[in-house]
Design goal:
The complex is a heterodimer of chains A (308) and B (510). In chain A, 68% of the residues lie in helices and 2% in strands. By secondary structure, chain A is an all-alpha fold. Chain A has one domain: ABC transporter involved in vitamin B12 uptake, BtuC. Chain A is globular, with a radius of gyration of 20 Å. Chain B is α/β, with parallel strands linked by helices. Chain B folds into 2 domains: 233 residues, 3-Layer(aba) Sandwich (Rossmann fold); 243 residues, Rossmann fold (3-Layer(aba) Sandwich), CATH 3.40.50.300. Chain B is built from 17 helices and 20 strands. In chain B, a hairpin with a 6-residue loop joins strand 11 and strand 12. Chain B is globular, with a radius of gyration of 25 Å. The model of chain B has no long low-confidence stretch (mean pLDDT 86). The chains are: A mainly alpha (308), B alpha/beta (510). Chains A and B meet through helix 7 and helix 8 of A and helix 2 and helix 3 of B. Chain B: Keywords: ATP-binding, Nucleotide-binding. Chain B: This is Nucleoside ABC transporter ATP-binding protein. Chain B: InterPro entries: AAA+_ATPase, ABC_carbohydrate_import_ATPase, ABC_transporter-like_ATP-bd, ABC_transporter-like_CS, P-loop_NTPase. Chain B: One of its GO terms (molecular function) is ATP binding. Chain B: It comes from Aliiruegeria haliotis.
């Protein structure tokens, strides 16, 4: 294939492609965390869930030959982690943040333990849809290789926003997240709602992990996540607990993360590691710009231990 | 005696017979019988701890009565679970709000329904809500988050919610404790109209005689867990009621006022700040506070008084203007407040002026723990001085606590209020800024706090009293300011103060 010279245009294209590729795990983890936090609990363990999801998804995809079976397995294992977290937090005097940190280490430890035999073998990749068929430019085609999970994530963000607005389940989660007393007065069981929300959040984080090992980067290694699960949790706060904002914020993160490789592709390699820090600098900058000394955090669920 | 069990419009009667409730050795409720007829407005009077809440919780099924029975619409009911009460059409409006703050009023109403649909068709629900609202005597904005509603609107929404749920017997637990007099009259007037129409039966817990005489049909009075009197409201005088409630008629303290010199302590000029919604600004052109006076700031809640208080305590940023104390600029820091001997009693002191999980003794030492006798700051804390200070204040201000080492959060509201007032009034105090000092307190506590304020005034302290209770303002103030829409709308000395004129300025018609 002829390489078409597109010069500086390569940078925004690479960033776009990178945003779509890199953002998918962020989308799933942040949507999962958004659901959990809206119910009034923080699950910091999603980093561990993400890594375990990556491992279990990869392992099952390799054993069965079907990447989708892998995704399903990752979701189930993530839900189990969520259930465990939610169950422990039910007890009096248990702090959800401390439990989350323990769960994070547990998830990573278990993933490394069970994942050892799967570092070498090659599992089938998740399919992607080529939205760049109309173009002859290989960079365009590469950028528009969109994975099915990315599309699913976008739809999920819309569905979750709709759920919070117009379904009983969504309103129930919001009630529980805002006022335990009001929820009890309505005859709801806050612990159960939180347990299920945490389980569902864990399942989504597991799917995010499966994307990592089954599509991009596309293999199981121990350093596969490098803190993406934790960043996604920060991203929920930045997105002000709004699922659609979570989607856009994930894209922004992904794009910023792709800045370094994109600049490298046109020959700028100085400060490569500095560009890797772009997403973090961007987050800090945006959080400072959107904060206010006079107002409390808008939209924060009131039962969250962060806001108490 | 004829009894109305149900009315045509749907109100139902409730009768409690020989209700007794024991908690271990302690008898909270002792053989109490009351009969609340369908479509009546029944008041339940009593001091704090008289057993009102216990009785109501037995009726609602939160407690399982030790003995006694309950008839709902003439049929015996076994309240083993709050859900049974709900299914029989009994509903309760609590003293604290049970609405979910970040949900809109419409969302709150729909989700509180037991049969809330899985997928909510907002178009249809909105139409149904509009139809429901059209049949109600009052309305609230449905599309704002509840956190943005004023206290009066929240209270109305709580009542609307009960009606929306189809409950026909409502228990209102001190429904007006967070409302201004005007709001209280409006809400209770509407409630009475609903009972007159036979739509609902109401049992209202209160300790305000005025509300009983103005709105209720019948009254039952409890003291120390026993039924001590009651009957038709028209047939009982306030003296009779108060004697039954307190045992003896309450002492009305005369509160002599000494003449004091009026040196200016504090001046606010052109102070501006954002209000709590962040959408409007409040602007105080000029307030001058003099020593030995009580300057009352009246106003309906949500007209900028809370923001004014927060500016003065340093909890809210000033966007313009200047505050001077003794002629020097004042930025509400701890050092400045200490130098100028300025003290505060904010509203909800447990939240605004205490560390709830620290002990009573520690909380009482907040003003003094870091200073030595010579005015310098100290490094090691002096536990003995803290204990001494605590025991004096607990005794002087009659704070009821199990021990000085108890968490301050375990105290009742009145005791927290007295403890903080005691702390703020120790030592030399040149100025005291108070906000709603008597919210939700019973008669005796109110009276003792007001005595303390007048006593401090007589000793030359300048007091800025921000209050939503107009009676309190009229009773205590030397001079009255009225706040409306974030501005000072009116000023008058007490001698020429006229309640109806002040009321008009509060309502924004000046």
């Amino acid at each position: 294939m002829d390489s078409v010279e597109i010069g500086l245009w390569g940078v925004p294209l690479a960033i776009l492609g990178g945003a779509i590729r890199v953002s998918t795990p962020f989308i799933f983890v942040s949507l999962g965390e958004c659901l959990t936090e809206r119910s009034g609990r923080i699950n910091l363990g999603l980093e561990g869930t993400l890594v375990f999801g990556a491992m279990s998804g990869y392992a099952i995809a390799y054993e069965t030959g079907s990447p989708f079976a892998g995704v399903l397995a990752a979701a189930v294992s993530g839900a189990c982690f969520g259930l465990l977290h939610g169950w422990i937090c039910k007890f009096k005097g248990v702090n959800d943040i401390a439990v989350g940190i323990a769960m994070m280490l547990l998830g990573m430890g278990l993933a490394f333990f069970f994942g050892k035999p799967y570092i070498q073998p090659v599992a089938p990749d998740l399919p992607s849809i080529n939205f760049g068929w109309w173009s002859d430019v290989p960079q365009v085609r590469a950028a528009l290789q969109v994975n099915v999970l990315f599309i699913l994530g976008g739809l999920l963000a819309l569905a979750m926003a709709w759920m919070f607005r117009s379904t009983r389940v969504g309103l129930t989660v919001r009630v529980v997240g805002d006022s335990t007393d009001a929820a009890r007065a309505m005859g709801l069981d806050p612990d159960r709602v939180r347990l299920l929300s945490t389980a569902m959040g864990g399942a989504l984080a597991g799917v995010g992990g499966a994307y990592l090992s089954l599509f991009y980067p596309g293999s199981w290694t121990e350093g596969i996540s490098s803190g993406q699960g934790l960043m996604a949790i920060a991203l929920v706060i930045f997105a002000r607990w709004n699922p659609v904002n979570c989607f856009w914020a994930s894209l922004l993160f992904g794009g910023a993360g792709a800045l370094g490789p994109a600049l490298q592709s046109i020959g700028i390699s100085e400060g490569y590691y500095l560009f890797f820090a772009a997403p973090y600098v961007l987050t800090l900058g945006l959080l400072i710009l959107t904060s206010s000394p006079d107002r409390a955090m808008q939209g924060a669920p009131l039962e969250l231990s962060l806001t108490k | 005696m004829t009894r109305t069990l149900t009315t045509e419009a749907g109100a139902i009667s409730v009768e409690a017979l020989h209700m007794t409730m024991r908690f271990g050795e302690f008898t909270a409720l002792d053989d109490v019988s009351i009969n609340i007829q369908a479509g009546s407005f029944h008041a339940l009077l009593g001091e704090n701890g008289a057993g009102k809440s216990t009785l109501v919780k037995c009726i609602m099924g939160f407690y399982h009565a030790t003995a006694g029975e309950l008839l709902v619409a003439g049929r015996e009911a076994f309240m083993t679970d709050p859900k049974i009460a709900q299914s029989l059409g009994l509903g309760m409006v609590y003293q604290h709000f049970t609405l979910v703050p970040s949900l809109t009023a419409a969302e709150n109403l729909v989700i509180s329904r037991a049969d809330a649909p899985g997928v909510i068709n907002w178009r249809r629900e909105r139409e149904k809500l509009a139809q429901f609202m059209a049949t109600m005597p009052f309305s609230v904005p449905l599309d704002l988050p509840v956190s943005r509603l004023a206290a009066g609107e929240k209270q109305k929404l709580e009542i609307l919610k009960q009606l929306y749920l189809g409950n026909r017997f409502l228990i209102l637990d001190e429904p007006t404790s967070v409302l201004t007099p005007a709001e209280a009259d409006e809400v209770l007037g509407h409630v009475r109209a609903l009972t007159r129409a036979g739509e609902i039966t109401v049992l209202m817990i209160t300790h305000k005689f005025r509300e009983v005489t103005a709105f209720a049909d019948e009254v039952s009075i409890l003291r120390r867990g026993r039924y001590v009197g009651g009957g038709k409201v028209g047939e009982m005088s306030v003296e009779e009621m108060s004697r039954a409630m307190m045992g003896t008629a309450p002492e009305v303290s005369k509160r002599p006022r000494a003449a004091t010199n009026g040196r200016e302590i504090m001046r606010l000029s052109g102070v501006e700040a954002q209000d709590r919604t962040g959408l409007k600004t409040i602007r105080i052109d000029e307030i001058s506070l003099k020593s030995g006076e009580i300057l009352g700031v009246a106003g309906i809640s949500g007209n900028g008084q809370m923001e004014l208080m927060e500016v003065l305590t340093g909890q809210r940023r000033m966007t313009g203007g200047e505050i001077t104390v003794n002629g020097q600029p004042f930025a509400a820091t701890r050092a400045e407040a200490r130098a100028h001997k300025l003290r505060y009693l904010p509203e909800e002191p447990l939240r605004n002026a205490c560390a709830p999980r620290m002990s009573v003794a520690e909380n009482l030492a907040f003003r003094t723990f870091d200073t030595g006798g010579n005015g310098r700051t100290r490094f090691w804390k002096d536990d003995r001085a803290i204990a001494r200070n605590a025991s004096t204040l607990i005794e002087d201000f009659k704070v009821k606590t199990s021990s000085p080492a108890a968490r301050i959060a375990s105290l009742s509201g009145g005791n927290v209020q007295r403890a903080v007032l005691g702390r703020e009034l120790t030592g030399e105090v040149d100025a005291l800024i108070v906000s709603n000092p008597c919210f939700g307190l019973d008669f005796a506590a109110v009276s003792s706090i007001r005595d303390r304020l007048v006593e401090a005034r007589n000793n030359g302290t300048a007091i800025l009293l921000i209050s939503e209770d107009l009676d309190e303002i009229m009773e205590l103030s030397d001079r009255i300011l009225v706040m409306s829409e974030g501005r000072v709308a009116f000023e008058t000395p007490i001698a020429s103060a006229d309640v109806s004129e002040i009321g008009q300025h509060m309502a924004g018609h000046g």
